[in-house]
Every structure is written in structure tokens, then in C-alpha cells.
Amino acid sequence: MQDTFGPRRYYDEPMPKRSYQGAEGNVIMVYGLDDRMNCNRLFNILCLYGNVEKIRFLKSIEGGAMVQMADNKSVARAISHLSNEMLFGKKLQIRLSKQSEVQDIPNPGSLKDGTPSFKSYIGSKNNRYNTPEAAAKNRTVGVWEAIHFFNAPANIDEGKIRDLFASAGAPEPESAIVLKSRSERSSTGMINMKSGGDALGAIALVNHTAIESDVPGKFPFVFKMCFAASKGHPKSKEEIDME
Questions:
Q1: Which SMART domains match (predicted)?
Q2: pLDDT digits (tens, 9 = 90+) for 15-36
Q3: Helices (H), 152-241
């Protein structure tokens, strides 16, 4: 069903028919990762569906990574909504791992981009399910072309968003709209991409980018993104509460 703003994609997705609640651990295997992906960029897409604890890229499997999520519900959401989606022209495959945890690596090797092949995100402020209150504000939205952004500088506009995407090497947006925020100190809005794959790639590359504030002495804004409730639709209460 469509409304005047386009198809709504805001929903509470039921758990997949196959139950993952009996899994021994909270570890998933991710296959089909492009060379542009690293720990932070994989975190950027997985954090939409649950807290990420550790990520380790595997030397033995090209384009493969092992990820420890915080709980089984996060595992189920990640598998349900990201497996078989296209990212940088490759199909993601996400499966349960037989491992019960991802072991810490004190001195990890480097990926092709020079970043570490292992990283822990335990305690990261960019995880979005750190408290029951924070978790309740998140809603499951599948991969598609509409992105909601928040925690951006108050003076951001479409041109600056396009520059941000270009500097990150992200796919070009089709359009970007800055919406009124509850706070005059920051802004929020919508970004429409050509496809769900382009949107997923943009979130991988641009999510959690630090943007310097125009106010002297103020910490940078951490630009945050998620899939929108509906294309071009005014924000839902939950999206406003995420700011």
C-alpha cells in the first residue's frame, strides 16, 4: 500500500521462521565482502540491526569475516535483513558460525586499506542497542533506497551531503532533503539513492563520519544513518527520538 509520499517501509519484522535462539553463540560468518570493506564499514551496516561486539576479517577466506553480535536477536535480524543483499556489486551471505565467540587478537594484521583486520566494538557509543531505552527506539527496516540521516550540523545542505558522499567514495545520491530538527544545533533529513544496493554501500562508507562543527570548541558531529521508514515521508516518532 502506498501513501502520497511513496511506499512505507517501517515495520517490526517478525523473527525468521528458522529459530536462531538455540545457537551456541552469537557469532556469524559474513561472505562476499568487497575489498572496500573493513571492520568499521562492516560495523556501519550491522549496527542497524543489533550491537556489534567484535569483527575479524579472515586471511583464509577472501571476502570473509567473522562477527560476534551481542545476542541472538541481533544475529537473527542481521541474517534476515542483510543476507543476499547486494553490496558493491557482490551478494552478501550471512550464516551462523559454529564458533561461540570471536577471539581477541592483540596484534592483528592489516587489510588492503591499511586498517586492522580485527576490532572490538564493546562499549562503543556508536552501537545503538546499549540500553533498553536506546534499543526501543530502533525499528527494523529492510534494505532499500531511502536513507534517514541525523546528528548532522545545523547548516548542512544537499550540496554538502553530496560532497560528503563523494569524499567517501560513496554512490551519488539522487536527492537529499534537510528536515527541521527538534534542536537548532543539529539537523536531520532524507537521502534517496538509486537502489537499495547503493544505499547499503553509502551507509557502509559514510555512516559515523565525523563532521567538524562551525562552532569553535565544539566536538565534531558524528553523522548517523539508517534506512528510512518510507521514501520522502516525514519522520516517524521513533526516527525523531533517535536524534
A1: RRM
A2: 443 444 444 569 999 999 999 9
A3: 158-168, 196-206, 237-241
